[in-house]
Amino acid sequence: MAERLLDVEDLSVHFATEDGLVRAVDGVSFELERGQVLGIVGESGSGKSVTAMTIMGLTRGVNARFGGSVSYQGKDLLKISDTEMQQYRGNEIGMIFQDPMTSLNPVYRVGEQIVEAIQAHEHVDKRGARRRAVELLREVGIPNPESRVDDFPHQFSGGMRQRAMIAMALSCNPAILIADEPTTALDVTIQAQIVELIGRLKDDFNSAVIMITHDLGVVADIADEILVMYAGRVVERAQTRDLFYDPQMPYTWGLLGSIPRLDRPRPERLYSIKGTPPSLINAPKGCKFRPRCPHAFDKCMDEPRLEQRVEAHGHLDRCWLDVEFKRAHRDRMISGETTEAA
Question: What is the pTM of this model?
Answer without folding.
Answer: 0.92
